[in-house]
Amino acid sequence: MTDAVKKTADAVKGSTDKAQANFQAGAEQAKATFQANAEQAQAAGAKVFREAADKSAAGLSELNAQGKQNLEAMVASAAAAQKGVETLSAQSVAFTKKSWEDGVAAAQGMTQARSIQELLELQTNWAKSATEAYLAEVTRATDVMTASVKDSFKPINERVTASVEKFQAAR
Question: pTM of the entire structure?
Answer without folding.
Answer: 0.61
